[in-house]
Write a structure and sequence with these properties.
- It is a single chain.
- By secondary structure, this protein is an alpha+beta fold.
- Helix content is 36%, strand content 28%.
- The chain is built from eight helices and 15 strands.
- The strands form three sheets. Strands 3, 4, 5, 6, 7, 12 and 13 form a seven-stranded antiparallel β-sheet that branches.
- Strand 10 and strand 11 form a beta hairpin.
- Helix 2 packs across helix 3.
- The radius of gyration is 25 Å and the shape is globular.
Length: 323
């Protein structure tokens, strides 16, 4: 009698056991598939981690640009850059950016792919460029957070960008990548590194209900070493993507601009960077020189540099003006 009951119970449980076994196999298979897709995606993004460089010249011959980027001593690459020349309402527009990711490459890659497109499609891009830049930064940030809501890791990115419209240079910055110009032979920072221990940044974070504490360096919530960034969903209330924007006039005293991730600025000062590349006319060569110097000085981070040379009213302008 007992054996009959056991047999009946086994018959009843058999379909359940089969279902559970099948379910476990599916979950394991999906997890392996997810793992494989992550590894595949990672290898595609970082398949070629050797240094890259390049450059170009604007159609009106008013500026040339070069870039150089390397993972440096790191095993993964989270820096991205963009150098783009476009036409908007009959104006030739130069768009240059350096984007330094943290918590993975996703946020930096997204900002590279979307920020400038969002900016030049803004209805006020020409008429009110500053407000268009601020809107584009915040719109890109919110769209990234929407697109990234299924990811486990909390990725973020800095952005240091330079927009050339006519004789106006507008530099916008979020995070600790940096923009430096050479004007009249002098190095001038045209962006501010957003660090949590700055008095106004700490106050803004605390007013929003957050805190700043020391954990090897000053960090928002004891976690993040920059106080403004794209992404960083879990800290978004405190770590905003509102850019600080500075406008400079492009005239005969403005020689060149350097945009770079902190892989350069951690080991090279503003003045050293400007002095180093002042005699180098080719901006690609100049960007490579900065990248190599940072590496030789022991930079422990990815290193990305963009150099823009302003050719109007300078010695090399007549040679290049037919480009």
């Amino acid at each position: 009698m007992i054996n009959c009951r056991k047999n009946r119970l086994l018959l009843l449980l058999f379909p359940v056991l089969v279902f559970l076994s099948f379910f476990v196999l599916i979950v394991e298979s999906n997890n392996m598939g997810y793992l494989n897709s992550v590894l595949s995606s990672s290898s595609q993004i970082h398949a070629d981690d050797s240094p890259v460089s390049g450059g170009g010249l604007s159609q009106n011959g008013k500026f040339s640009y070069g870039y150089a980027s390397s993972p440096g001593k790191r095993s993964s690459m989270e820096d991205f850059y963009e150098t783009r020349i476009d036409g908007v309402d009959g104006e030739i527009v130069g768009l240059f950016g350096v984007f330094d990711g943290h918590g993975g490459a996703r946020a930096a890659e997204y900002v590279k792919q979307n920020l400038f497109s969002n900016l030049i499609s803004h209805p006020k891009f020409i008429s009110d460029t500053k407000s268009a830049i601020a809107d584009a930064y915040n719109h890109t940030d919110s769209e990234f957070l929407k697109s990234d809501n299924n990811q486990n890791r909390d990725a973020g990115s800095t952005a240091s960008t330079a927009i050339l419209v006519g004789n106006r240079l507008l530099v916008a910055n979020v995070g600790d990548s940096r923009a430096v110009i050479c004007r009249g032979g002098n190095a001038i920072a045209v962006s501010r590194d957003h660090k949590p221990d700055q008095t106004d940044e700490r106050q803004r974070i605390e007013d929003a209900g957050g805190f700043v504490m020391w954990a090897g360096t000053w960090r928002v919530g004891g976690v993040l070493a920059v106080s403004r960034a794209f992404g960083d969903r879990l800290l978004k209330q405190y770590v905003v993507a509102d850019p600080e924007i500075q406008e400079e006039k492009v005239d005969s005293s403005l020689e060149f601009l350097i945009l770079a991730s902190d892989g350069l600025w951690d080991v090279v000062s503003n003045e050293e960077a400007v002095t180093m590349i002042k005699p180098i006319e080719d901006p690609e060569e100049a960007a490579r020189r900065l990248m190599q110097e940072a590496y030789q000085r022991g930079s422990a981070d990815n290193i990305t540099c963009v150099v823009v040379r302003f050719l109007a009213n300078q010695g090399g302008s007549s040679r290049n003006s037919s480009g």
